[in-house]
Each structure stands twice: as structure tokens, then as C-alpha cells.
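Hi R.,

Here's the chain you asked about this morning:
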Amino acid sequence: MRAWPSDASVAHLIFTDHQHLPSRDELDDAIAHAIRKGARAIRTSAMFPGAADVVLADGFDVIDRLALLAFDLDTELPELRGEVQLGRLRPWHLTPCSQIDRESFGLLWGNSATSLRDIRHATPSSSSRVARSNDGIIGFAISGAAGDHGYLQRLAVRPDARRRGAGHDLVVDALRWMQRRSADQALVNTGVTNDAALSLYRSLGFVDLTDELVIAERRLT
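And here is the predicted structure, written out as C-alpha cells:
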């Protein structure tokens, strides 16, 4: 549990093992911890349906739904367009990347430099990349791998720099990294109404899965 990136009064409950179903006692402990910290609400990370059912039965309400898509890494990958320059995301890039993230997703869902750093350490191995053009960093991607799965954890492109191939190349670059890590499948999620992101992922060969992910919140005061 940590503070929500854009609102320190909201506790962010992060599920690090998506195969584990939280118990009522675990949720009660988390809620008690958030109350001791003075939080006015507790908000979850994205949950698979099994965990979501448990959390919603404990008084949480759905505040967002995410589509889940998968890419078979045994297939041939799309080619890079090469219209932007890709490079490693360095620690000093976190602040400008957080600005891009907030411009892309808004203050509620946007990440701070600290939360982007946390995302980079959320999986056993990770890759963080930036896309550059003549006017500096215009996008970034954070990917992770655990076992035989790869995860495109965060992708954002500066709104005024879209349609230059940055999103396309950042995703393809991430898939190449996952292949080198011997992952079998890549997963990504995005808002069910984020038509631009859904179109990008589908155009690259991702397919929609039947499960939707849920983000939920419970008011504490």
C-alpha cells in the first residue's frame, strides 16, 4: 500500500500477485492500515474478476473498468517504423515522463515520478524506454516480465506528438524485449473507452480477452 500518485489522502492498495484471491481478513487489515494513516479512501490497482468479486463484496465500488488484451509472442512481430529515436529511460527522465503521463491520462490516473519508479520495480525484470524527436522526449513505455508472461505496464505519448509512430515503436520495442526474456505472452490493459489505445494494440496484433479488469474504491470517512 502506498499513497495514490495524485492524491496523498487516498491509499493505493496494490495487488502484486494476480493469482492470489484476497481474504476478508487481508482486506480488513488493509483498510485498518489505511485508516491509521489518515486516508479518506482506499483505491485498488487493476484486479482480475476473482479478486474484484471479493473486494466488491467487502463494500468497495467500481470506479473504472479496463479491457485486457494479449499478444502471442511466438508469432512474428511487427516492424519498427523508425520515425522516432528509442533509448533507455534514465532516472532523470522520470519527471518529464510523469508530465507526459498526466497530460495523457489526467490528474486522477496520471503517475508521479515516484509512482513511475515503483512501476519499474513491480516485476522481477523490467525494461523502461523513451521515444525522442527533435523536440525531446515525446513518449515512454515501461514493461515487465514474470515467468512466461510479459506486461506492458505503462505507455504514454505526449498528446501534441501523437501519430508520429512513437506509440507503435514503443510497443514493438517492448514486445521484442519480452521475446528476448523468453516470455510466451504479452498482456496490456487500457480503459474500455480508450479507443485510440485499443486501436493501436489491435493494429499490432493484440487480441481482446474476455476478462475485464476492475479498479475499485471504498470511502473511509
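One quick note: Residues 94-109 form the longest helix (16 residues).

Cheers,
M.
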